[in-house]
Amino acid sequence: MNNIQKNRLKDQIFKVWGIGCTLFALILLAFFIGDILIDGIMRIDWAFIIDLPSRKPEKAGIYTALMGSIWILFLTTIIAFPIGVAAGVYLEEYSKKNRLSAILEINISNLAGVPSIIYGLLGLEVFVRIMGLGASVLAGSLTLSLLILPIIIVATREAIKAVPKSIKDASYALGASKWQTIWNQVLPASSGGILTGVILALSRAVGETAPLIVVGALAYVPFAPESPMDDFSVLPIQIFNWISRPQHGFIENAAAAIIILLLITFIMNGIAVYFRNKWQKKLK
Amino acid sequence: MKKIVIMLTAAIVLVACGKKKEEKVLAENTKTVLSGTIKIDGSSTVFPITEAVAEEFRAVEPKVKVTVGISGTGGGFKKFSRGETNLSNASRPIKSKEKAACEANNINYLELEVAYDGLAVTINPANDWVDSFTVEELKKIWEPTAQGKIMKWNQIRPEWPNEEIHLFGPGTASGTYDYFSEAICGKKVGTRGDYTASEDDHVLVQGIAGDKYALGFFGLAYYAENKDKLSLIGVHNGTEVVKPSLETVKNGTYKPLSRPLFLYVNSTSVKSTEVVEFVNFYLDNAGELSKDVGYIPLPAEKYTVQKEKFKTFVESNK
After folding, report:
1. Which residue of B has its CA nearest to A279?
2. Model ipTM value
3. Where in chain B is the domain with CATH 3.40.190.10?
4. Least buried of A82, B59, B265, B287, by fewest C-beta within 10 Å?
């Protein structure tokens, strides 16, 4: 066997290995989704969506938890999106490469790895108690915003890094200021990547349970939040609560609620993919 | 980009408008329609009963907003002692530290028993040698010093088979674990660590159902839901062997693996009619509703005692 053949063989082995890894992940996912679908799909109907929580599994619904999750998602987006993107732009475009920015960078990466329950404790002390927001939707959203800020910042920076230098140079050459260049060239060119990052971060936020339980999100709320200061529950807490109940009916309910939660994340990821494709086409 | 900015601004404005809506001031209490909010937090074990009561109460007083959290007994008392909640669910009596916290914040409270919870000791149906346990035997199996030493059935009783015991139980974070370890091994001793632990009791049920040499414990309600897959083992209470059931837990003969569940009431909260109404409603219906969600009601006369206690408490805090 000569060298060329050896290298080809290595190529083939790696390819098979790669396919195997991908299939492994996909099969796991398919198995998991299949299992959940079998348990829960029959339980989903309109009443399940609009009913209030109940001690009787067949009468219980997810209305308040679903509305709570939507509120949380909405508020977390409008809090975390502008702050995260602005911080990313600053770090990538404005900050000087010195020790301070190096420290900042390391800390942001570290923050992305902090366990979510720690954010919950922080949120309880700062937002719920010191700022006096109570166990409200707003306090929960602020806590989750902190949780996903590092992800958004990192995604923003990566997206901006990927913008070809020629575009920026051309903009400067035409006499545009730094701000004009960022606003008119860099951000539009990187918006697909930024948006993908933001939506992936939000998909994580919508599945969080631990920090919200610590902050004081509830398990039984018979009304949907009407303002950011209202009490709330979210889907993951409802699921967690149902899973820990002995009656089998609640296990079905939990599976059904998981399907709804998965649906939300799939839709969000779909939106991310759609926007990324749309903007990438525009750029070309 | 511009579109997004406009959308975001619009969203922020909308939210800002929503904020103005302050918590609704208590409407004047007429006799027919009550309103206001009742905040409850605490044990996730007691949660199903309180949820059921809140659900039924809503049919009677639809304008009273009752919310229930599941921060755990300890987490619930933390909020209760700060005056952040009106009622607190607890699967154990308040600890002296928590009492001190309440006193420090000038919070007086009343403890009410609302139902019983029994722990079931179960084995696989294929296990034909065990008919009962004594507390000493359970202790011998579960105490911390048994770790790595008591590994076989014949170490408990010589006539039992020379096969490994496979132990299943809730994780150390759960109140069920605390209760079992205290009742069997003693206060602050804990149990051995080399057993299969899961926070999800369904996993324990499956584990025991699939293993002839298994032994485990969890809430009685889980046994009731899985009667066909498990066998329930009676525990010797000092005079006789008793299996947990609605009757034996209720009349107190299933010892020591049954415990009362509590509701704590803040004395300031009983100044509002809706809280008084809710607690009375709770005590009137807890018997029926606790059965619905898998727990065991107190004997009827005990509910009367609790109601009397509550009545005096309300009178003295007017």
Report:
1. B1
2. 0.80
3. 33-117+260-316, 118-258
4. B59
